[in-house]
């Protein structure tokens, strides 16, 4: 079981790294930006939970390389808890929101 969990974590980390690098590569060199790829991934994970069909499949591939819904929820829930409980006197907060027009 530990090997399966390790492989799944590796798949998530690979997906996150690839997504973050691809996103940053698309930013024009002439523009300055401050962004957090993991925040974008958290937002996509929230959208994925309610998505269906092709949209859900595409988001799954981007954020998890095809993991199932429970695996995605458990991984990102655990990651957010790890970030919030960083320890060593570090206080962290996570805030994500959607703004639609």
UniProtKB/TrEMBL annotation:
Note the InterPro entries from the entry: Serpin_dom, Serpin_sf, Serpin_sf_1
Top-level taxon of the source organism: Eukaryota
Serpin domain boundaries: 15-100
Output the Pfam families linked to this UniProt entry: Serpin (PF00079)
User: What's the name of the protein?
Assistant: Serpin domain-containing protein
